[in-house]
Amino acid sequence: MMKNEGRLQAAIDSGVFILKLSGDVRLTLSATLDSQAQRLAEMPGLETVMVDLREATNVDSTALGFLAKVALAVRDRLEQPPTIVVDNPDVRRMLDVMGFGDYFTLVETPIQETSELADLPLVNADERVLQERILEAHRILMHMSEHNREEFQPLVELLEEQHRQPSEP
Hints:
Radius of gyration: 16 Å
Number of helices: 5
Structural class: alpha/beta
Largest sheet: 6 strands, mixed
Strand order of the largest sheet: 5-4-3-2-1-6
Helix content: 40-55%
Mean pLDDT: 87
Number of strands: 6
Low-confidence stretches: none
Strand content: 15-25%
Shape: globular
């Protein structure tokens, strides 16, 4: 793995799901994040979701949208909201500005990793599917806060317009 390349790892142990994002997490990992959100929505015995961002140097808006989707997928299933562990001040500030504190518990305290984390298999997506995921992620972010709606409305409108236009052969 290159130093800044994004990486996703996960572990499940006794109802506790840990998702670790490392490096520069970008839209290329959004299909993998989306599949985890869908998996969590259906996972039996799930009690806690922890997202570890301590080794994340950057998380782009598409990846943030799918992290938000994780919180929405488990919102009605868990007693407590998912927890994000973040100690990078830039990443923390981004989460605060985007309203993640309304959907996650944000902490700096390290988590006890009881299970060995395994790399998640990369879910590949063609360009059209990737565009759909980018649009979905930003729609999710827009619904999180008024700030996000104002921030992402022009992008979502542009993406929707591009999505309506037929692809070139």
